[in-house]
């Protein structure tokens, strides 16, 4: 199984704004005072378009799908939470915490991929769990070490343990389960998505180990990464606040590997951390300030990786 892919899907926003339904447990979101909604969306579109241009310039195969105005989907720019695409032709659809995010799931996006020559064999649909108030938000909640058959999950209101284990059984992953926290107004609160505090590359892992308060859990997670030969790049909680955990390794032209992140994440890294990462792949960063502030997500959340076989 490959850990990285050359193909990704990205959704271009039409009505991006701070989603009040997700802000209840995503403590990274902020209100940008004094900006009209249309201005926020225009800034987000500009950041999105520049980001796509940079990815395509290095040979990443980006399928851009336009969001539509019929649905109220302010977070549609983060497709990796509702869908994942797998090498065996499986597509997984996930249950979402925020009601207005459930409308992001669109079958026409699967049709678009099939038109591009990707094969979809089977759809694994977990969305009925929403009726029971149970959620698992795609590769936001699950970090898949595809090559080593492990899935990492920081439990939160958006990542249910039992459903995670069910996913692991269905897709043949060994579950690595823990809790990760951030400090909010002096209190330790669960981080809403695993991919905010951790990134898995082919030969490295970026992780804020300090966010795993339980020492046994922390050791267990780090031991799993070390067992699989990954170089561990430790980041701080302050760097997590700048989305330094929200990176993704992708492949460009001639299979060259890139570690994709936002400009804020890149700027928050130390020279030593940058050198560690550059031993593995070239860094590609782009300014996502508006998207990060209002959306509380960053570069990794914007890219849904496509591992489907091609005809």
UniProtKB/TrEMBL annotation:
InterPro entries: Amdntrnsf_FN0238. NCBIfam families: citrull_CtlX. It comes from Flavobacterium chungbukense. It comes from the Bacteria. This is Arginine deiminase-related protein. Pfam families: DDAH_eukar.
């Amino acid at each position: 199984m490959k850990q990285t892919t050359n193909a990704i899907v990205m959704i271009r926003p039409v009505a991006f704004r701070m989603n009040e339904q997700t802000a209840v447990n995503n403590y990274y979101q902020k209100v940008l005072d004094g900006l009209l909604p249309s201005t926020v969306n225009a800034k987000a579109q500009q950041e999105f378009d520049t980001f796509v241009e940079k990815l395509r310039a290095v040979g990443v195969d980006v399928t851009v799908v336009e969001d539509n105005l019929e649905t109220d989907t302010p977070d549609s720019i983060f497709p990796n939470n509702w869908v994942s695409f797998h090498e065996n032709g499986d597509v997984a659809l996930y249950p979402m915490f925020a009601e207005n995010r459930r409308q992001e799931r669109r079958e026409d996006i699967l049709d678009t991929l099939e038109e591009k020559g990707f094969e979809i064999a089977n759809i694994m649909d977990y969305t009925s769990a929403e009726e029971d108030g149970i959620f698992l938000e795609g590769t936001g909640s699950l970090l898949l070490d595809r090559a080593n058959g492990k899935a990492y999950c920081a439990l939160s209101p958006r990542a249910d343990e039992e459903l995670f284990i069910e996913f692991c059984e269905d897709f043949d992953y060994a579950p690595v389960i823990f809790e990760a926290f951030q400090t909010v107004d002096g209190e330790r609160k669960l981080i809403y998505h695993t991919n905010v505090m951790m990134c898995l590359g082919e030969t490295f892992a970026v992780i804020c180990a300090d966010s795993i308060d339980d020492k046994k859990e922390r050791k267990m997670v780090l031991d799993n990464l070390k067992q699989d030969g990954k170089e561990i790049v430790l980041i701080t909680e302050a760097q997590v606040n700048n989305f330094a955990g929200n990176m993704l390794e992708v492949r460009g032209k001639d299979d060259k590997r890139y570690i994709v992140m936002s400009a804020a994440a890149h700027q928050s890294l130390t020279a030593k951390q940058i050198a560690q990462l550059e031993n593995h792949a070239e860094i590609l960063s782009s300014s996502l300030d508006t998207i990060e502030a209002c959306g509380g997500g960053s570069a990794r959340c914007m890219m849904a990786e496509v591992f489907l076989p091609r005809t």
